[in-house]
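Table S2 (text version). Query chain:
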Amino acid sequence: MNALSFNAVDYIVFAGFFIGLSIIGYLAGRGEQKTSDDYFLAGRKLPWYVVGSSFIASNISSEHFIGMVGAAFIFGVGIAMWEWAVFITLTLMIFIIVPIFLTLRITTIPELLETYFGRHIRTFFALVTVVINVLTFMAAVLYAGGLALQILTGFDLWLCILVVGFVSGIWAIYGGLSSVAWTDLFTVIVMFIGGTLVTILGLKSLAADGSILEGFSVMMERNAATEGVWKQAVETNLPVYGSGDSYNRLSVFHNLNHPLVPVSGIVFGVLSIGVWYTVLNQFIIQRVLAAKDLWHARMGLILMGYAKIFMPFLIVMPGLILFAQHPEYMTGEFADTLKSADKGYVSMVEDLLPAGLRGLVIAALFGTIQSTVNSVLNSTATILTLDIYKPLINKQATDRQLVKFGFNTSIIALIVAILIAFAITLFKGGIFQYIQTLNAFFAPPFAAMFLLALFYRKTTRIGSVAVLIVGFAVVVALKAVGGFNILPSWLVAFPNQAGLSWTIAIIAGVIVSLLTQKNENPEHKKLANAWSKKAMFTSFMGEHWYSSVLLWWALFMLGIFAIMAYFSGMLTW
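Corresponding structure-token output:
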């Protein structure tokens, strides 16, 4: 695949994006190094539209535009369930979890866990979070961004990863969360414009008359893969899921054998991977903790929910369009097909967009990269500073010392992530599969521990520790046994592995908690006791009908259910 063809207008647009980003990052970050609260939580003054935009930008990155498009090319529309199933965790966050978080005035998730589980769990979770941030999020995003830059320029992949890393980390290091959040708002606007262009032009390219609706009809027909080269591509190059019948590329519901989106993963995958990713993941939740108040936090989450409805049209539909255009790309070994599919989105930019618009789309792609890297860097520095350095190393640290430590650790974390990104170039699967596989390893035990403590009042500290021990033991055992290829076919899928380990961990926590009730100190149950403050769940719901949290949440849920029904065959229009 050759480098993209850029002209002077493309370079001007691309440069203009970074100039705009730099101006916003500089202005938003001025003076934010004075106090640790300003540097790590933007002074807790972010409005709802910045909270929501930053949540979106932090969540959506190059692994989506690169990896999710590639996964959709291989597997079809079912990949969108990783976006649409967010309604489960989003509802829990809006009405239960975030009110508790903001009432307790926490700064980090490890700090929250200490209120129930104690100092040791806080330290352990903080260290694990740092490892996950660097290993899973930053490194994978840098790899995908480097891959995009390689296709763009034709330069060596390792050099591209290096450039993307250092360019992306600037504003998190300079201005903390305030710079990150406000640049995210700008990034999201450019991302939606650029992503929409690719999808619209892709649909138009499929129609003889250039009609978007006709193009959509052609895309759906070809992705059904019932005839011609499309049917041949699916049958020849993909494993067959289930009882001998080819899977449906146009359905969001798949059997238990599906490697990425089995139907069981919709619930268990969300309660394990989803809860950990959106609730316990510091780099995602940090902008919610920085909201002006609970109403702004809730409305920011609802804004993110509406974006999740629309996002598959930007990061899944291009994969369906690519399959409709070039089914012949699905050749060779399965793992090689996954790896090659990661290059699909940027190739579409080359094929579909005229010179001038390519610069805008690539700017949008790089905006998502820098947004995620900035967010992860800031959250990593926050945890290392407030959960490791201050309580364990320098309890009397001043604000100036805390900010300086966070500044320095951001630089170190970025360098380590770049080195790991180099190693990902040796990974055989697609980047989206790489990320989700790691998520399925780390997420279930912590998600189980948190949900059990929140909803089961009899949970003890010893029971919570049992959740972690049993949960990680099951995860490791599944990976070890899977290495010998002796797992049943339904258990090969990582969402099912996550669901099984989560379920067993929950059961172990309940049993051990019941056996250790007499040894429990009730003063440690601050997280569960937060339920007693009923006012937190009914306040900050909006003063007028047009600002009602319930109204906008209900409309969001209606949209989610309608679109899932359509892609399950229950609705047609």
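Notes on Table S2: The chain has 28 helices and no strands. Residues 47 and 296 are 6 Å apart (CA to CA).
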